Amino acid sequence: MRVGVLTGGGDCPGLNAVIRAVVRKGELHYGDEFVGFRDGWRGVVEALTMPLDVERCRGILPRGGTILGSSRTNPYKLADGRERVRATLDSLKVDALILIGGEDTLGVAHRLAQDEGLLIVGVPKTIDNDLGATEFTFGFDTAVQVATDAIDRLHTTAEAHDRVLVCEVMGRHAGWIATYAGIAGGATAILIPEEPFDFDEVAEIVKRRHAKGRYASIVVVAEGATPRQGNEVLQTAELDAFGHVRLGGIGQRVAEEIERRTGFETRVTVLGHIQRGGTPTAFDRVLATRFGIAAIEAVHDGAAGQMVALQAAKIVRVPLAEAVVEPKTVDRQLYDGVASIFFG
Ligand code: F6P
Ligand 1, atom 10: nearest CA belongs to which residue? Predict the structure, then answer.
């Protein structure tokens, strides 16, 4: 078969590991040929391709980013986007597409699979871990490790100066990174999009802890966390092709409000894209490799409109529709029953 591969949306560590696994099994086991589409859906709309074979994939397993490039292009936002996708696939004689993406890229995949009857298989990626129907997306474990390392470092300097340090992590709709890294790093409070917070309550938690003596505090806040009386803090309200604003700045706001209410010196660190770059953890390399192999097998089984997923430690197939219907939010038992036990 001739199989097209593309990576769309925000990059994350492990994309190259998926590509390598797809190509390895496809070429050596099935005798497939591959077309690499550049920069997500833009490559399909504009017929921007690159050669993709086992040789081209050598050495990419531990590399972050994606050899194919990525973008947030949405074919459905272009007047003739859908027709151009069809025309590119026809002219390049592509039989099937493997889409490695998050809710946006896979949402388009789902629509196109239905509208054009294409053989499309999805692979779930995002550091945010907010895709439905899979317990984990690859990239998440790496982001949590990066954030945990940062929190550990913040702890020692916070102790040296007895400061409060606020650490802003990514997490647009869901606070998975904040919750995992906050638990792993021993955070005093964790603020997530799922649970609008109150500045007074956060300040009380910090005061309670400091009342016990000289204790530095770490407050982890997801970029999408929102004060009960207020809105998300934005870097810009301009919308991307999928209708998302650019978040960022809630950490600064939280730091100012804590300092004002407690009198303790409070500083902020924003981890930003550091969480997305660099080498994937072993867990993410293995998960990405398993997903890649399962995706090319799904193509050969004709599993149109399906996504590979992790459920109970096994790789399974689920309808794309299930994955994109709504974001997977943080498990309440984990947040209320585990993380919050350590607040204050
Ligand atoms: O969806 C993953 C993510 O990293 C979000 O946490 C974040 O809001 C967004 O992507 C940032 O995207 P960009 O790099 O395009 O600004």
Answer: 10
